[in-house]
C-alpha cells in the first residue's frame, strides 16, 4: 500500500524522486523518504508526514546523486515516525532498501539476525531486509560481480509475505536491484535511464515503455540496461510493453482534486469502456474472452469476488447475470471468500473485479479459485497488474488512471463492462430476451446521460452545505437501488468521515428505525418503478420521525415532498446504478470539501490495498 519510486540515469535523482512520490502519495502518506548514492556513500533523508514535509527537511538539499530510491508509507508495522520511515539501511549503510508489502516472519528474522550481532532501530518489518542482505553478503566468500545479487536472492528466499523492493548498495554504486513478490513494481525504460515505480501513472510522463515484472524476477538495473534473472540467477528474456495511457490523464487538469476530475471524466471513461465492445448496430463482442456455449452452459454458478467499491460493482450486476444468463450468481467479499471454503469446481466461473489489480485479498481468492479448478476472469483497469497475470482471462475497463483514493470512474466503468459481459454471455448461450436490445440501446446512451446527471452538481452542493456537520447519514434503497446506495454510503464515509450506513429499505423496520430522530439525514435512490411505492412508504416513516431527505430518482414522484429531489435521466433499472451513483459521488465530494478535508487522500486509507 506504500508508494515506491526509483531512478537510475544521468540526471539528478532527487527532483525525479520527489515528483514521483507526490504522484504516489495516494498509496500512503504517513511518512516519506529518499536515499541516493553519493560520492561519500548512501545518504538517507526521511521523515514522518507527507512528501511536503520531506521537501522541507534541510538535509534533502544535499542530495546530488543520479541513482536513488524513494518511498511514501502507509504504516503497517510500527507507527508513523522518522525511525519507521523508509528507506531502511543496515548499520553501516552499505545497503538501503525501500519496501512495499508485509514481511510476515520478521520476528523470527530479527531474532536470527540479533543472534548474529545485528541491531534494529525501528519497529518495522522492513528493517530486517537490508540487514539480512548484509548478513548474506558478509557470509559469501566469492567476490565476483554477482555477489550483491546473490545476497539479495538469499535474503528474499528467507522472506515470507509480500514485497516489492528497491535496493541500492555501496558495493554496487552504479546499479540498483529490484524484485517483487505479490506487490506491484514496474520499470519504465527510457533513453539512458530507468525509472522504477509501484504504479505506472507516477512515471508516465517520462516513458511509456515498461517492463512488467513477474514474482521473484530479480532485475539488475544500470543507467542503460536492465538484466533480468530468475531465482537461480539464470538470465530471463523480457519484452518491453508499451502502455498507451495519456500522461495528462494522471494530472489534475485544472480541477481542485483528482476525485472531482474523475467524477466529471465519467462520460469519457464510460465511452472508452464501451469502445468497440458494443457497436451502434448492437453487435456485442469482447476481446480475449472466447468462451464456448458448451462451457457457459455447463456452469452452475458464477461468483463475482472483489473488495470495497469493486464488490459493490459486483452487487450492481448480479441481477443482470441472473436475468440474462439464467446462471445463479453470487457476489462475495474477497477477504471472506478466501477463508470460507467456497463450493467451487470446474462448473464455476469466478470473476474478479479490481481497479488496481493489486488487491491482496482478491488475488488470494483468485489463486484459491484456480486451485479448485474454476476458470477465472479478471476485470481490471491496470494493464499488466498482478491479477491480470494470474487470471485465465482478462478484460480491461479502460477507464484511464484513477488517482483519488475514493473510486468513482472505475466503479461506473466496472458496472458498464460487466453489463456488456452479461449480454455477451447471454448471446453466446443463445438466450432470447427482449431485455437485450433495450439494454444495448441504454448502454450506448449512457455517456450522454451521465453528462446530464453531472448537471445536478449545483443543487447537490447546496444540499451538502446544509448537512455537512451531520454525525450520521442513512442510505436506503431496494433491489438494484440497494446496491447503488451501498456504494454511495461507502463514498460518503471514506472521504467525509461521517458515519453512514446503507440499508435495504425494507429492513428499516427491523431495527434501524430506532436510530431515526429529528434532523437526521436519510438519502435514498429510487429507479425501479416496481419498487418505488414501497421505498416511498419507508421514506414517509422516516419523515414522520423528523428526518431530512435527499432522493435521487428517474421517476415522476408526483407531489411527494422530500427536502431535496434530484432527477436523473431514465434508463433500464438493471443498469441504473451507473447514473444514480453520480449525484451521490458529488454529495460525498462536496461534503468533504465543506469540511475542509483532503478529498483525494482520506485519512488511514490507501489507493490499493496490497496487504491483507
Ligand atoms: O483496486 P481494487 O478495485 O481492488 O480496490 C478495492 C477497494 O480497495 C476499493 O474499491 C476501495 O473500496 C475504494 N477506496 C473505495 O472508494
Describe the structure.
With 612 residues, the chain is α/β, with parallel strands linked by helices. The chain is 34% helix and 23% strand. The protein is built from 19 helices and 25 strands. The strands form four sheets. It has an eight-stranded antiparallel beta sheet with strand order 3-2-4-1-10-9-11-15. A seven-stranded antiparallel beta sheet has the order 5-6-7-8-12-13-14. Helix 7 (266-274) runs parallel beside helix 13 (409-428) and helix 15 runs parallel beside helix 19 (577-594). It is globular, with a radius of gyration of 25 Å. It binds 5-amino-5-deoxy-1-O-phosphono-D-mannitol.
Question: How is this fold's topology laid out?
Answer:
Blueprint: E1 3-8, H1 13-24, E2 31-38, E3 41-48, H2 51-55, E4 67-73, E5 88-89, E6 95-103, H3 106-115, H4 128-138, H5 147-158, E7 161-169, E8 176-181, E9 186-190, E10 193-197, E11 209-212, E12 218-222, E13 225-229, E14 235-236, E15 241-242, H6 258-264, H7 266-274, H8 293-298, E16 301-306, H9 308-325, E17 329-333, H10 334-337, E18 348-354, H11 360-371, E19 375-380, H12 386-390, E20 393-396, H13 409-428, H14 435-444, H15 446-454, H16 457-467, E21 472-477, H17 480-496, E22 499-504, E23 521-526, H18 532-544, E24 548-553, E25 564-567, H19 577-594
Parallel strand pairs: 16-17, 16-18, 18-19, 19-20, 21-22, 21-23, 23-24, 24-25
Antiparallel strand pairs: 1-4, 1-10, 2-3, 2-4, 5-6, 6-7, 7-8, 8-12, 9-10, 9-11, 11-15, 12-13, 13-14
The structure holds 5-amino-5-deoxy-1-O-phosphono-D-mannitol.
5-amino-5-deoxy-1-O-phosphono-D-mannitol binds next to helix 9 and helix 17.
